[in-house]
Prior knowledge:
The chain is an alpha/beta fold and 336 residues long.
Amino acid sequence: xxxxxxESSCDETAAAVVRDGRTVLSDVIASQADMHAVYGGVVPExxxxxxxxxxxxLADAALEGAxxxxxxxxxxxxxxxxxxxxxxxxxxNFAKAAAYGLGVPLIPVxxxxxxxSANYIAHPDLEPPFVxxxxxxxxxxxxxxxxxxxxxxxxxxxxxxxxxxFDKVARVLGLGYPGGAPLDRLARGGDDKRYAFxxxxxHDAPLDLSFSGLKTAAVNLIHNAGQKGEALDLPSLAASFAxxxxxxLVPRVMEAARRRxxxxxxxxxxxxxxxxxxxxxxxxCAQSGDRLYLPPLSLCGxxxxxxxxxxxxxxxxxxxxxxxxxxxxxxxxEIG
Length: 336
Ligand code: KG4
């Protein structure tokens, strides 16, 4: 089954052709990150307009890359939430037109379910059940993936997402947008114990997370040093901050895996590229005996292949949409 998939939930327009869930025939992407960098974050109106300009060309490029004619497409899939509503609507409307024109089913895909699926592409042997740490610019969730389309949130952030937190601190340090990767690079060689950051525990919800206190502490530290004219050891600041974010995430996902007892942990989303978090998870899993599945860096961020992969399993579960499909800025992963 050849699925032509589209992703446009934030600032990347992406299209891919995926065969039978796990074979990626093509995967093309047009990033707008440079466009938004001048504003220090994504401008929703600009994102929507850039998606409109890029999406038809990417559809052609995905088909050409896969070596397929339009008549060989068996279904069209699209991210329909969560994300920036104007941006999502571009993808949803284009996918509807494509499915209508080709006379094939339309498959709606939850963005974070897509991120989880990136692991199926990277690891052909991975099958549910497993616990997945989903960390992106907009979401931070610990998910019990019971089956390909059956999921339960075990823990979630009460405020900011982990990616938002990296981006904010990077912005205050003048590292540009998106700031996660440059902050990660800056941390190399830094002393991760040089600066202390608070760890927050949510009362009666040990698997829930909170990043706003950590973010504010880092921003205050940078501003205070600036006001006093004190020089900061920036690599050590970046390393200490990454260690604090990792300390928030890793023990909780390990505890979630222990409770579920499935012995498998996966990671998903843009922040899954973070070298400190990857290293800490590798160490923790080596100790616990859990098998760890990390997506390659190329599949951590938004892409079309992950949507085409998840779409296959949604289709198997009978989840297709009509021409009245809408987009949702917020959408629970359990509903899909
Ligand atoms: O999954 P993604 O591409 O988009 C969303 O669906 O949100 O995630 C983007 C986020 C941004 O916040 C970006 O700064 C962060 O992932 N990110 C990183 C790294 N690479 C990307 N954060 C920390 N360390 C990295 N190496």
